[in-house]
Write a structure and sequence with these properties.
seven-stranded antiparallel β-sheet; seven-stranded mixed β-sheet; 4% helix; globular; 4-deoxy-L-threo-5-hexosulose-uronate ketol-isomerase activity; 276 residues; mainly beta; single chain; 42% strand; 23 strands
Length: 276
């Protein structure tokens, strides 16, 4: 498990492109037959990919956590963006097709991930945050979520927002997680932009062709930076940073948030004339 540390807005003012990418972009999320995780000190979120092939995979402990098993003091969100597979939770196997999600509560001891077909493996994107209470495990299907419709074709930001781990769907301590799909012909997400000092986020961009890119905007509103992001790469967004993006074509992304406020619409909007 790789560790990423926190930074202040002053830190990144003089960062080169290489430094910015090294600190805030995770370029490899899915590795066949492996679990690949990143531990960010921003709210102590752990995120990454589990891509089983011939054998089931489980999450091995890292010394950074100081616990006897992975979810002893954590909760977990999962969304499968690959082929069909399954999650084995305390000996019970649950089928996970593409776009299926799962909330797995604190104190779940046994957890493993499988693919149905090693030639078309599942890609489980997982996010874990510290938890103080055990809530029930809940399987979440995209077909049972009524999406929030946002944006307009005229402003190139028409999109559907599926709230997987959200008070409308299931209880959690502080983790929220969802799936946003941009409509054909749209390329912008979350513009006008915003910040929220009360929580941070990570973004996994995917469903992109090989030569597609998303320009992920970050930084303080009056001194913005950007990361050029390829398919199945993820960005860390501190609470003080804007988080917006524009792609060379429509795309999808998974957002995950944690912090002291679980209200989805709790945000500080940034007027367009304040962006620099």
């Amino acid at each position: 498990m790789e560790t990423r540390y926190t930074h202040s807005p002053e830190d990144i003012r003089h960062y080169s492109t290489e430094q910015l990418r090294r600190e805030f972009l995770v370029e490899t999320i899915f590795v066949p037959g492996e679990v690949k995780l990143t531990y960010t000190h921003n709210d102590r979120m752990i995120f990454g990919g589990v891509m089983p092939k011939n054998e089931a995979l489980s999450i091995e402990l890292s010394s950074e956590l100081g616990v006897s098993y992975f979810l002893e003091r954590r909760e977990l969100g999962v969304i499968n963006i690959g082929g069909p597979g399954s999650i084995i939770i305390e000996g019970t196997e649950e089928q996970m097709n593409k776009q299926d999600g799962y909330y797995i509560g604190k104190e779940t001891k046994e957890l493993a991930f499988k693919s149905d077909n090693p030639d078309h493996p599942a890609k489980f994107y997982i996010v874990s945050t510290p938890a103080h209470h055990k809530y029930p495990n809940v399987k979440i299907s995209i077909n049972k979520i009524t999406p929030r419709l946002a944006g307009e074709p005229e402003t190139l930001n028409q999109r559907r927002i599926y709230q997987y781990i959200h008070p409308n769907i299931c209880e959690s301590c502080q983790l929220q997680m969802g799936y946003t799909i941009l409509s054909q012909g749209s390329s912008w997400n979350t513009m006008p932009s915003h910040t929220h000092e009360r929580r941070m986020e990570t973004y996994l961009y995917f469903d992109m062709e090989e030569d597609m890119r998303v320009f992920h905007l970050m930084g303080i509103p009056d001194e913005t930076k950007h990361l050029v992001v390829a398919n199945e790469q993820a960005c860390i967004s501190p609470s003080w940073s804007i988080h917006s993006g524009v792609g060379t074509k429509d795309y999808s992304f998974i957002w995950a948030m944690c912090g002291e406020n679980i209200t989805y619409d709790d945000m500080d909007h940034v007027p367009m004339d304040k962006l620099r």
